[in-house]
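hiii so my PI (J.) wants the whole complex modelled not just the main chain, which honestly fair. so below is everything: two entries, each one labled with what it is. i double checked the lines twice but i was tired so who knows lol
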Amino acid sequence: MKSALIPKENVITLLDGLSQKMEVIAPVMHEGEPLFTTWRGQEIALDAENPILSPIEFFLPQREVLFRYSRKEVGYSFEEGSVNPRLIFGMRPCDMRAIQVLDKIFESGPSDHLYSERRKSTIIAVLNCASPGEDCYCAQLKSGPACIEGYDLLLTDVSDDAKSPSKAIQSAYLVEAGSSAGESILEEYSDLFKEALPSHFEEKNKRMELAKKVVLGSRPAPSLSQVREAFAKMRWEDLGRLCLRCGGCTFVCPTCHCFNIVDQGIPDGERLRCGDSCLLSGFSRMTSGANPRPSQGDRLRHWYLHKFEYLPERLDVVGCVGCGRCQRVCLAEIDRWKLLEEMVQ
Amino acid sequence: LEKIHTTCVYCGCGCGLFLHVENGRVTGVSSSPAHPLSRGRLCIKGWQSSEFIHHPDRLKTPLIRQSEQQVAATWEAALNFTSKRLGEIQDQYGPKSLAVLTSAKGTNEENYLLMKFARAALGTNNVDHVARLCHAPSIAGLGASVGSGAMTNPISNLASSDVILVVGSNTTEQHPLVASYILKAKSKGSLLIVADPRNTQIADLADIHLNPNLGADVAWLNGMLNVIIQEKLIDLEFISKRTRGFDDVKKTVSEYTPEIVEKISGLPAEMIQKAAIAFGSAKRGSIVYAMGITQSTAGTDNVLALTNLALATGNIGREGTGIYPLRGHQNVQGACDVGALPAFYTGYQKVSEYREKFEEAWGAGLPGDPGMTAMEIMDAAADGQIRGIYISGENPMMSYPDRNRIRSALESLDFLAVADIFPSETTELADVVFPVASFAEKDGTFTSTERRVQRICKVIAPLFDCRSEVEVICDLSTRLGFEMSYGSPKEIMDEIASLTPSYGGISYDRLGLGGIQWPCPEKDHPGTEILHVDTFPIGTAVFHPVEYKGPHEVCDQEYPMLLTTGRSLFHFHTGTMTRKTPLLDREVPSPEIEINSEDAKRLEIRNGWPVVVESRRGSLRIRAKISDAVPPGIVFIPFHFKEAPANVLTGQAVDPKSGIPALKLSAVRIRRADA
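here's the output for the full assembly
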């Protein structure tokens, strides 16, 4: 696959060009926060921490209209929404891994039509994480800080350290293509790129090794079997007593994909798909009122087991990518890693 | 896809959030990590707060009643008809026959305009809102004792309290963000005391859970203060330098020995002693309270008893201390601040003292006689003294006590206009219904329970044929001969600031992501985190001795059980928004009465069975939920559900000092529906 070097000052020009053809989504600062939104020429917050909501929302929106229905003289007519081409620029390796998890769920037949359409019409440019956030534990789960696969383009900041006296200061990303869509961008905008040299790859490897060490150094790396043993010992009911039932962890988790379908409007209206949460009792409650997961502790246990037991068993993939978002939004501020560390010890 | 920062529309916490907008539709919510209170966290209602916006049940066009039916009308027709009818009533019966109920769900700007409309255009001080049903006793009690009815410290201060006393607040469900700071304190080793007859989640997490009898709060709070005095845990320096009247209170509470209090409250004497010593020993103690304290015929006395406790222990004016009245609506604080109250203009400036100031500012003659409170307005409507009411975004048919009386009061009006986003049990009774913009469709400000004035942003244009209520009020007022016209809500805030010392320095360009906490008197003033640091607005704080008077209604042979009402985590108030939010409505889809297993056994009721609940006011049918979260003898019904409106059962008894109805206590009887 092709690779090249893009000087940082050319990134905006590149996105300008691409935004003529597709919607460009990128992390942009809003009120002091990086958020993935439609890029309209703003400065891109590639050095900020990973946004609180992952770009998974562009494949599985929180709320989407599956179709509109309207009553005709005979029967109903239906109108489906259309999917537009998009580029997601600056997705992190952990979120890329989450998409690979979701692909296994939504694209193994029968595939989910809207998800598949969005996947096909979206180009993903991943940014390797040179300075991971304090809640990150991607390296423990082997989903970062360097991205290995799945991307169309992969960017790594290989800018010179200003302190390094040996070379002229350069400020650039190493760009590697991972697909034909990625390659064709490198070709089409070749005037914005320079040649990537072996030293750039060396620099990339050096930095990613360092970042990995930082992440691994900040928290232990229990094996999957240790995690499972820990869960078997976990006092879920105690955790359930503390949980404030906000559902936040499920709403920000990039691999959480459960949804609810509702029809709104009679006789004309919309069939909606809305993000759901297994931490709500209504998620597992049956019509009779019986609930196989009656307590909050049961539901928390289910959430963890889904990620660390059921998905590995069924799809050979761990359902946690180590992005740390569940920690960042937990209303009860339950320190998940501390819990696990205590258990593993 | 755009993401625009705004403020949550549900409870008084005032969390920051982003609304996501794509092609003119609100498609989602994300939390706001930089927000000073919520720090990237939201409760379940916050995460779901965009879901009702595009619901097809939204009111879409103005409606005018034609005999039995409400018929779609143009704005022109609805406004003309409303101003004509209000004008006719004003001419025929005088301005005092009109009233306005504003909305704690509305913005500061809307509330300000509505109270200005009531006073300057209609000529009446009959303006009030749901604060009368929630924190009127805080305004009365805290106002008299410390000079301000507001929360004294920012919510985040709770994390640095040593001892937190939570009274009558289901904090984890009703103010989850406040609960998160309490849990934070607890995880650092602070002691948590919770007083609630129900075993709520926060009571379950408490180090000391007190479950006093309903209506016994003054007694056990006096008892606690008595123990604190006996144990010499009072702050003598604070008492002598910053307060007056302590000796009277000392004398009064000396009668409330733990043994006497045990008889009244049912709390074991040693529990009272333990809680009192714990609170009295705190270096930094905080008091958190909500409707369990206020919605009582002793509401103001309860607040005063709590304040006495804070003052005697010097727990005010410092970080980690303070009194935290938790406001239920996201803007009930603001609606009070901007004068949607019968006796006050903005910033609690008394009508009796500041009339000339407002007459001059508004260029209109203003009424001088005190207006009626919300409950008095309903009484007067039933008696025929009030003939016309404009209600903004309130649903008294569900939220006010004694629903049958409220219905007959509203039905006996000559004219009722209601502005709302969804049809409600109250819009059904209206002669004119105005469809107005939701929080996503308008600009303005909300003031949270910690006095934080924050922006809300118009992220989409008003849906359907809805209009912002600012426009509606201006149009009505102008038609009634008092011209109102503003370029934008920003200009309204500038007017509020010019008339209100505590909001004097507030303007939209200064309100960033975290807003400003009032008092903010000057343009360069940073706002005030902690009140009463060096002095009180009234100079020295005043102790008010309060005596236990007993509840207004007691159990007897006919009605042997007590009903208390409240809310669920997953619904808000009368359910107009949360019941149209699929996940929330699925979570708690129907009303249930919580009943203790002992009572259930005695009454031969099984879980899920329908029961009939009767009080002296009315009766309803509801499913039983057997739960030991309520003690024997007490039952609980959330008031969200029109299928079993709890307020059919509640009564009109009010606290004489604040006019709040005693919603938390009603004598009832229960039987199996087939019995």
